[in-house]
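Quick question, first post here. What does this chain look like in 3D?
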Amino acid sequence: MIQNARSIMLKPSRILSIDIMRGLTLFLMLFVNDLYEPGVPKWLVHTKAEVDGMGLADWVFPGFLFMVGMSIPYAIASREKKGQHKIQIFGHIIARTLSLLLIGILILNIGRLNADLSGINQYVWAILLYVFIFLVWNKYPDKPSLKTLFLIIRSVGIAGLLLLGILFRSGDPQHISWLEIGWWGILGLIGWGYFVAATVCLVVNSRLWLTIIIWGVFVVVNILAQLNLLEAIAFLKPIFGVIIGGNIPAIVLAGLTIGLILTKKGWSNKKIMLAIAVLGVGCLLMGMLLHKWFVISKIQGTPSWAMICNGVSMLVYVLLYFIVDVKGKYNWAGMFQAAGKNSLTTYLAPDIIYFICWGWSIPLFFYKQDTSMILAVCGSIAWAIAMIGLSTLLSKVQIRLKL
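> Answer (accepted):
Ran it through. Tokens below.
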């Protein structure tokens, strides 16, 4: 009895495994995105679009999407606790979604910029883009005496983004074009998935079974889209293609479902872990069943791939939940926890270093070669660790992106 009371008293109020799992997926994202493909094993990198299968890199992004969904119930509950009404919370969902879409589109178009037509070097444009993004969306300290200064800095960032947009030109002199939506970029995909899941959570008032039903609906939508049975609404694809494709929302809704299970009052740790494990195994089996009709492909966004990834995410998470939140062993995961708390900073800050090194031919990435697999892999591991350290350092000097 005394021992149980002591364990409750010592138990952290925050579910640490959520931050740690998010940080783990970010670490792996930094790692696989940095890998020099000719020099590393194929199972580490992205599987080609025409290949039926998946490697580690093909799980990392859906793993992060899954964690986006898991965090939503807590974010909404936090805003409700502050006295915000549903309309106010929905306004925040819209603003955050639009921010992710905008940043995603801008980053997506870096590779399309024509320096001659735009009058600015591609690498300089890219570096300025990231700097202005940090100026606009940085979480500045809550100091009334500096409020005016922070407003001026944010205004400079907004003006800078507008100027970069005005300067942007792509194509050739005979066929000049401007910014394109394309596939929205990674952050854009996250934005659409977040919008669907956060809106669902808000509308259904965090009710678990309704969320599971809507998750199932998007799985069906994904299946119908893969079978080309949604051509009647094909005119919506240029803007709402991610939603009517069903794939991305279904993955985020899977994470939302697990997040809601964690919030169930009166559920013991054993019941929570059992529910997540059963769902995880069920997703794996469903993915294998769907594999009879659909290839496993991240690029194609197939339902078999999504369900297998969801199953892996659930089983990895339940293991972390048991180790971290049930057994209280979390000291080993400080690096991942720090990254999980600063996810957007951890993801975007390294790109500035990439563009500086590429633009000025700085030989920082000497390990990217195909003669030594060990050097190539270890170099990318070191890069991922260093970039998590960078984001931690930035947060200590009040540089932390918050949408």
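The two ends are 44 Å apart (CA to CA).
The CA atoms of residues 215 and 390 lie 36 Å apart.
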